[in-house]
């Protein structure tokens, strides 16, 4: 059974936090190509969104396999060396440890992995986002797997009619809960509407138990205990034949929802769907961006990517995102464009407020 692993990290931005320098992409590809030649990987690609490199790998090692995680870690270390030579911005930013500990989780990079029985045809979309956080996937995942106004198959496909199980992680308390939908939709929404803390990790088809979607839930700043960069997330969605159709998986991106993580990890803004060759945040280091890479997986081979969100049918979503950008930016340092205080705790703001603590005096009475 093949496993698809997508592991991402920011190991140096070009320029600032905008993009990845081509030399870094080349170094990463060399490392993965060697692992493919050695037989560890079936197939591999190096992709990026903004300043984040995504290693897309297929293999037979299963999820959470040490050799795969070590390969990703060693690859990011090798790329960091190039980033340091070129003095890329924040070289090694997401690598929070010096020594590999057996699993890349908790070490900075984000990972999403799914082991699956390859079907007669296996269409998969990998979404990569920059300048946001893992909870950014909550709303689109809800629409794809729980909302019949988005996903016609929930109503008219007998294989989807029973619904899906949604696994939610509490990233603050390190706990998980599974909701059976549609029966528990309202319970699910209690939590996933608070996307900074409650993050959808996995969606399973209810009847078969097969994984339909999986996300990276790694929260860089919670791991580091300080502001490092944003935990720019990845999402894998399997499509068709009893799972949502490709078009149903793309439909949520027609409305750019507001996400946290823009500029200094401290602002909210619209998540703008982008063509893959235009995935480079610019204005105010943004707005936050998402790309959709479509693949047909054939015996573990990655046939693709097709640029799914580059299509003309998302032009109006881009327009709307840019209009929303003008509107949100007009608020400057005021909430809700600036994040609420709980979320600012994980930025550099506490260093400023500490300096002003002595200025406060008690009010009389
Ligand atoms: P620095 O300029 O201090 O890195 O902070 C701004 C920034 O880009 C945050 O990641
Ligand atoms: P990244 O997390 O993408 O490095 O962005 C950092 C940032 O704060 C940009 O303003
Ligand atoms: Mg960066
Ligand atoms: Mg980034």
Could you list some keywords that capture this structure?
about 375 residues; alpha+beta; 9-stranded mixed beta sheet; 11 helices; about 25% strand; binds 1,3-dihydroxyacetonephosphate; binds magnesium ion
Task: Summarize it.
The protein is 27% helix and 27% strand. The protein is α+β, with helices and mostly antiparallel strands.
Describe the structure.
By secondary structure, the chain is an alpha+beta fold. Helices cover 27% and strands 27% of the residues. The chain contains eleven helices and 15 strands. It has helices at 22-37, 66-85, 138-146, 153-156, 185-192, 220-224, 246-250, 262-265, 315-329, 341-344, 349-356, and strands spanning 3-9, 41-49, 52-59, 110-115, 123-130, 164-170, 175-181, 198-205, 211-215, 234-238, 258-261, 267-270, 272-273, 289-298, 301-307. The strands form three sheets. Strands 5, 6, 7, 8, 9, 10, 13, 14 and 15 form a nine-stranded mixed beta sheet that branches. Strands 2-3-1-4 form a four-stranded antiparallel beta sheet, with helices on one face. Helix 1 runs antiparallel to helix 2. The chain starts with a strand and ends in a 9-residue tail after the last helix. The model has no long low-confidence stretch (mean pLDDT 95).
